[in-house]
Amino acid sequence: MNIVSFGGGTNSTAKREFCREYGISPGDYWCGLSDLTARRLKPEEVKAWEADAQTERDTLIFIQGMLEIGAKAYAERGCVV
Question: What is the mean pLDDT of the chain?
Answer without folding.
Answer: 72
